[in-house]
Amino acid sequence: MVIAQPQSVDVAPPAEQSGGEHEIVLETGSASCLLPATPQAVPKGRALVRRGLKHLGADSVSDDVALVATELLANALEHGVRDADARASEPDELHRRRLDGVRISLASTGSHIVLSVTDPSPTPPVRRPRDPLSGGGRGMQLVESLSLCWGWTLLEEQDGQRLPGKSVWAMFPKTAVEKPAAQIRIQGAA
């Protein structure tokens, strides 16, 4: 199921930094981190997701959530940051806030985990139709197949200005769900 309604969400303040490194903020029921808009954000984000899921008592779903985090972070860097940089006609302060990086967050609802990646572009994600001959473009299909549902929301206003950007999110069960074993039927067998 895909839920893609452009709703607004509050922008969380950036995580505190020490020594130039971006740190994960672990709180009751959530974990988040502001990552630099560089390719190193993807493996760092994956490691932070695993740490955050352990903190939230949901490490049994860490493989699926980490894979989806990889896709959402790669999309945020490839499309969100690049799109925001191309639209750089705003005043310098607003432009700087947009390009600070991408935020990755986990939140526990009790029975579910919500992963979100926030980037500076208001352009919504696009799930491309299946094309077996294409070398790419399957990321959102992967997100859709591994999560219970996914969607995106626009960012709220901050300091009287609408911050361009969006948060793409995916929801997972808090504990791994046993998947039934695939049944193969051999024609002619009894």
TrEMBL record:
Stretches for region Disordered: 1-20, 116-138
PANTHER family (alphabetical): ANTI-SIGMA-F FACTOR RSBW, ANTI-SIGMA-F FACTOR RSBW-RELATED
Entry protein name: ATP-binding protein
Keyword Membrane: no
GO molecular function: ATP binding; protein serine/threonine kinase activity
Keyword Transferase: yes
SUPFAM superfamilies per the UniProt record, alphabetical: ATPase domain of HSP90 chaperone/DNA topoisomerase II/histidine kinase
Domain Histidine kinase/HSP90-like ATPase: 35-146
InterPro entries to which the protein is assigned, alphabetical: Anti-sigma-factor_SerPK, HATPase_C_sf, HATPase_dom
One matching Pfam family: HATPase_c_2
Gene3D superfamilies membership: Histidine kinase-like ATPase, C-terminal domain
Coiled coil segments of this chain: none
Species annotation: Kineosporia babensis
Keywords: ATP-binding, Kinase, Nucleotide-binding, Serine/threonine-protein kinase, Transferase
